[in-house]
Amino acid sequence: MPPWTADNSVGVEFHNNRALSEEQIASIVAWVDDGAHEGEGAATQAPPDFVDGWQMSSPDMIVEVPPFAIPSSGTVEYTYYIVPETFTEDRWIRSSELRPSNIEATHHLLAYVRPPESSYFRDYPLGEFFVPKPGGRARAEGESNFQWRQSIGGYAPGQNPGEAKFPDDQAVFVEAGSQIVFELHYNSKGEPMIDEPRLGLEFLDGQPATRRLGGAVIDRDFVITRNAATHRVDASVGIKQDVTLLSLTPHMHLRGKSWEFHAIFPDGRTQVLLSVPAYDFNWQITHFLADPLELPAGTIIESSAYYDNSADNVHNPDPMSPVEWGDQSWEEMMVGFFDVAMDPGMDPESIFGAATRR
Q1: Model confidence over 164-184: pLDDT tens digits?
Q2: Is the terminal CB of the chain with fewer CB neighbours within 10 Å at N or C?
Q3: CA angle 215-217-219, nearest 5°?
Q4: Closest CA to 129 of 85, 188, 198, 182
Q5: Residues 6 or more apart from 122 whose CB is under 8 A from it?
C-alpha cells in the first residue's frame, strides 16, 4: 500500500491519512509470524477497482501537450510549453488533474495560468517546447506574484489527485485572456521515451463562496554542509488577512530527511501542523486537512527542513560536496507548499507577506 510518512501523534488530522492503526499492524505481524497462510476462499476480498483514466468526475476542458521526446541519457532541463489559446472569459476552476502518460520518467509536471499582460515568458514562443535562458523565469520589477502566474495543477511521484476533496463552492480564479504554461521535468531512463501530458479542468458556474489560493514558505539561499548528517533550513511567511488553511506539501530532493510545519498565532501560541520524520522523495504527499484551520491575520506559517548530506544516505549523489538550490534531483530545494481559502473579494496580493513576530 502507499506509505504515509507523517507522524500522526502530532499535528492536525488529514482526510487522506493512509496510516495503518496499531491493531491493523499487530494483525499483520501475527499473520506473518504464523506463516502468512492464505485465508479461506469465501473470506477473501476482491481486489480494489482502480480508476483507469481521469480520477475527477468528468473534465469540462482537456488541455493536451504535444509528445515530448525524453532522451535516453543526460540531464533533461526544465522545459516549458505555452498553450497558444487563451481563456475567452473569466472562469472559476473547481478542480484540476494533471496526468503524465509516462510516469516512470516524470520528475514533475506543473501547470500555471499566465494572466494577460504578464511578463512571465513574454519573449518566448507559443505552441513550442523551450528551455529558458538563465534568468528567463524572473518576473518584471514591481510586478506582483498574482499578476505574474498562478498554479492550477501539478503532478509529482506519490501524489494522488483523487485525494483532493475541496468543497463544491470553492475554486481558483482565472482572468479572461489568460494562457496556460506547462512546466515539464523528466529523468532519462536509459532508453528514448515519450510523454504526452494532459490537464483536465472542471469549472464552477458563478462565483464561489471562497477562493482557493496557493502559498509557500521557501528558502533559495541555503548551503548544506558537506557530509552533514542533519542540516536544518528554516523559512516562514506571514498571513496578513483572515484565511483558512486547506493543505500542506513539503518538497525537498534526494537529501531530504524530515520536515515540520508550524503555525504561530498572533497571541503567541504555536501549533504543530505537520511533522514528517522520514521524508521520501519518491512519495511527495499533499496532506489535506480533515478540518480546515482558521488562520487569523498576523499568523505565521513556519517550516523547518532537515537534510542528510552524509554518506549514510544511500540516495545521496555526492556527500563530499556542499549543496545549494537547484532544479535537478542531485541539487536541493526547500519549499513548503500550502493552500488557503479566502473571501473571493479579497486582493490575493494582500494575503501573504513577511513573517513579523509580535
Answers
A1: 667 788 999 999 999 999 999
A2: N
A3: 140
A4: 182
A5: none
Nearest to 353 by CA among 298, 314, 282: 298
Residue range 38-82, pLDDT digits in tens: 877 655 667 666 666 788 778 999 999 999 999 999 999 999 999
Do 97 and 200 contact (CB within 8 A), yes or no?
yes
Note whether 170 and 227 are same-domain residues. no
Return d(Cα 140, Cα 130) in angstroms, integer.
20
Residue burial 328-347, b: 16+ Cβ < 10 Å; e: rest: bbeebbbbbbbbbbbebeee
At 24, give phi and psi (nearest 5°): -65, -40
pTM for the predicted model, two decimal places:
0.88
List Cα–Cα distances, 161 to 56, 87, 102, 316, in angstroms. 8, 23, 16, 29
Residue 169, domain extent: 56-208
Same domain, 154 and 106: yes
Are residues 274 and 331 in contact, defined by beta-carbon separation less than 8 angstroms? no
What CATH code is carried by the domain that includes residue 96? 2.60.120.310
